[in-house]
Specification:
The structure is a single chain. The protein has 182 residues and is mostly helical. It has 2 domains: 51 residues, no CATH class; 109 residues. The longest helix has 50 residues.
Amino acid sequence: MNKAEYLAELEKRLAALGAEERAELLADYEAHFEHGRAAGRTDKEIARRLGPPQAVARDILYQLSVDRAQADPTLRRVSRAVFAGVGLGIVNVLVLLLPFLIGVLVTAALFAAALFLVASPLLGLIQDGPTTDYLLELPLYAGLAGAGLILWVAAVKFASWFVRWMLARLQRNVKTGKEDHA
């Protein structure tokens, strides 16, 4: 594969990026070819050392998604970074996807339980109606609602910790991938 073919394939694979960002990355890879030629290597040797353009593009897109998730850690960006990492190999399913899915499920369960507990006075009123039994159980419902508020705060703290932990895991995975390609 010569320089023009390599860069054309890389550009095609990086189509999801903005034109300026893509041009900057392509200029970097063009410089790799120029430095390699100056060192007496052929385009084919340089392309082989760089790796397939498909793999290079996946690595670049993964790194960018992790960087974006770290800059603005929303669930959507972290999810994109996780799925971009999973696309790099089957090992990442275990390293990234499983912990991510478990964390999302635990977070959702905590919020659902908290919401149920906070809503328990209203649910009790709907079930029993405004009776004396309901009034006698009102302190219990108030306690459940308080426990729900505490659980809600715990769920928010867990979600915050989980996002930070997942971002650190993604960053370690990026560094490990770079070391594997070096």
